[in-house]
Amino acid sequence: MNKKDFLEILKDYLKGHFTEYEINDILRDYEEFFLNGKLEGKSEEEVITSLGSPKAIATELIMEIKGENKGDKESFSSKTDYKSMYRKAKNLAYEGFDKCRNFLNSSDIINGKFPTWIVIGFILVFTVAMLPFALSILGSMFTGFIGLIFSSVGSIFGLVFSFTIMPAEGTMGAFVFFLSLIAIGALIICWTIFIHIARFLKYIILSYISWVKTRFMYIRVKKKKDESDSEVNEDILEGKEKEGNIYE
């Protein structure tokens, strides 16, 4: 078993117990074990032996972290076409993120293909550049949320109002009643779409945060590598100086 297999198996065991964001955090921590082990001259098999089996790790994490929240599971059972559309859009986004995952990967950063200041600078510039778009989207979502709340309250009020006027004005009451029902049905669809969009945006934001955290983890490992290389070079220089003194 190699590092890739280990992380994939661990990910499979964690699914259903943790959110995608939590799983990414856990996998990042264990990827750092492999990177640090590599710097220490250990093979992937040796690192895996020291860590234990993915199943045992997942079981321990589930018992420790999720033990108190066994019943706290998010569920959404909508059977509309919008759920299918949401899943397709999410899968497309996931494929896109998966392709972008190799950009500024561990090899590029740790081996010095891209200097640390370039990596940090790129992340800062890209984040700042995307911030106005993110804020505008979040602002639109907030406005839509407020609008849906007021519309929902208005529709419910209209439904209740129709019952109060129905004894005196049967036709008008029935008209308001059916109009309110239509509005409520439309609002249910709108709420469904809104929830899917909100979840999709949450997925994108958390995926980007996870990507940034991983890059900074690579930077930490590179720093350790540079410090280790510096110590090795100092030892070599000291050894050469001692050899020179002996020959003298």
UniProtKB/TrEMBL annotation:
Q: Where along the sequence do coiled-coil regions lie? A: none
Q: What are the record keywords, sorted?
A: Membrane, Transmembrane, Transmembrane helix
Upper lineage: Bacteria, Bacillati, Bacillota, Clostridia, Eubacteriales
Which organism is the protein's source?
A: Clostridium cylindrosporum DSM 605
Domain of life according to the entry:
Bacteria
Record carries keyword rRNA-binding: no
The protein's name is: DUF1700 domain-containing protein
Annotated region (Disordered) at 226-248
Q: Where is the composition biased (Basic and acidic residues)?
A: 237-248
Transmembrane segment boundaries: 114-135, 141-163, 175-194
Q: Known Pfam families for this protein?
A: HAAS (PF22564)
